[in-house]
Amino acid sequence: MMAEKLKKILPQIVFVGIVIIAWQVLYRLQIWPELLFPSVGSIGRSFVDGFTQNNFGGAILYSLELLARGLLLGIALSLVLSSLAMVSKSIYAVYNMLVSVFDLIPGVALFPVAILWFGTGESTIIFIVVHSVIWPMSRNVIDGFSSIPKIYIEAGENIGLSGLNLVRSVYLPAAFPHIISGLKVGWARAWRGLMSAEMVFGATGAGAGIGFYIQYRRSFMDSAGLYASLIAIILIGVVVEYGVFRVIENRTIRKWGMVR
Amino acid sequence: MTTDDQKRPLLEVRHISKHYDNQLTTDAPIIGDLSLVVNDQDFLCILGPSGCGKTTLLRCIASFENYQGEILVDGQVVSKPGSDRIVVFQDFNQLFPWKTVARNVQDPLKRRGIKDKQERERIADTYLEKVGLLDYRDYYPHQLSGGMKQRVAIAKALALHPRIVLMDEPFASLDAMTRKSIQAELLQIKEKEEMTVIFITHNIQEAIMLGNRIMVMGRGGNVLEDMENPLPKPATPACEGFSALWDHFTQLLDQSQ
User: Fold this and answer.
1) pTM: predicted TM-score of the whole model, two decimal places
2) Which stretches of chain B sit within 8 Å of chain A by CB?
3) Model ipTM?
4) Distance, CA of B208 to CA of B241 (rounded, Å)
């Protein structure tokens, strides 16, 4: 089992190894100045120093906490609103339009308005996160709801389910593969939205996140630190994909045989 | 016969007709003007060629379709789907894939007002036992074969104690061997349980084996034949009178094409 898994991800590990070696070779060739192209060693050192000296861990936790609050709110809102859209045709028509329209507005474009309303504090960042997650998530949930095989709905109605009960007991679990892909898109968008918000605002009253940390490295011309923070962002993404989404998938839709 | 308790009318279909929603009313209807009375404890098999409206009739009774006319269960007009009329579909995917076999049978009982979890488990296990799948109670539907899924669907339907079970060619997609054994099981269960069944099929042998009453439908939902099954159970092709009956239904079906 373990060996099989290892065999599966072996090409990926080899690829990452090659990239690291190629990077170091390019560095040795001195094609670009050190400021643009720092060595693998100094990026690694900066990565470690970030955590031990510059409170990078704190910045990550701060960002993740903001993200989690925004994500939870956005996910809850999109589930509730999409469910309501399934109960009434008029709500569906209006909500479908809202989703299509608002999904077109990039989070960054909303900053000025958000700042007018909420100032440059945490609320604005959470507002941006909610905005980034709610529309793609709702789109996926609604699409998921409309592609549920009719037989599940009829089987549900047949045992006496209707209205929100039917949505909760049949629509939501039956659309779970779509809901999970909505979560993935939503999380990715929210993560980006958060990062840009933090870079625009710098530190909020309460703390400083990853975006601010990157700005801070930039202002010190610490290019190894910049690369190190990008690596940290990638690592967090990998952890979320394999530690969160993969686990959810394995315990739900994969166990249920709804995806292979 | 009306004094016989078993002959109490349970389901009354009064002059229903059905056009498809996108169909012009001048076109031939799916069901023209159909009336039908099903008595308590009837096992009514409905035979008919493809497209004769037999599935549509069943879906009307289940309130999955709109129609003109009236359908009554126990003298009450029904207009919404409910667990008093449980459908067993032909499609193997009628179980919820996100629930285990046991939960697929147990959870609908909640809607039947059985609040006690242990009581629900007990009832579900009883019926899973009857269809021989108690060992599979913790499996998910995707881990079962088609025949096993249909057995679970039957267990789920019976556990609910519906007034009437509506079966829409539940065995049509099964291989001959599996079909035969499930038919025998269903017949056994029917003998022990008080249940009323409408069973749609296009398989004459299946209709003769299972039904105590057999109806033949032709195009437009015309009832071509509606008779008591004269053969005693178990009715096998070896029984006297089987082939005469078989010929009779074959002829009717040929005419209706």
Assistant:
1) 0.85
2) 62, 64, 80-83, 85-87, 89, 91, 93-98, 107-108, 111-112, 140-143, 160
3) 0.90
4) 11
